[in-house]
Design a protein that fits this description.
The chain is 4% helix and 46% strand. The chain has a 6-stranded mixed beta sheet with strand order 2-10-9-4-5-6. The longest helix is centred in the C-terminal third of the chain and has 5 residues.
Length: 123
């Protein structure tokens, strides 16, 4: 069973940085692309970044381009989301999830959302 646990969120001032972690089990991070999602209160998670498994073209939500970067540590079987120059509108619960195809990530086609990790950016 594919399982992920997110961590690393917190409260930061506008302009600050955070690095979120996505520890995975039941699969290895090189088997699937990892997508990152932001969930606002009362809403479903929406994609902010989706890796590509084939052509290296990462998909980004326009508002995070140039500020968010994904990476993986294969030895630790963990994916990371580096978020720089954070803005108040980045506030939300962040989730990660594995996908076999990028289009599935972009449409948030995942039904096993976990707790996520809260990111709060103050102005």
């Amino acid at each position: 069973q594919l399982h992920v646990v997110e961590s690393g969120g917190g409260l930061v001032h506008s302009g600050g940085s955070l690095r979120l972690s996505c520890a995975v089990s039941g699969f290895t991070v090189d088997e699937y692309l990892i997508g990152w999602f932001r969930q606002a209160p009362g809403k479903q998670p929406a994609a902010v970044l989706c890796e590509s498994k084939s052509d290296g073209r990462t998909w980004y939500l326009d508002s995070v381009k140039g500020r968010f970067t994904a990476s993986k540590n294969y030895a630790e079987n963990t994916a990371y989301l580096r978020m720089d120059n954070l803005k108040p509108e980045d506030t939300g619960v962040y989730h990660c999830a594995p996908f076999p195809e990028q289009f599935m990530c972009e449409t948030a086609a995942w039904d096993d959302w976990g707790q996520g990790t809260q990111v709060t950016v103050s102005s």
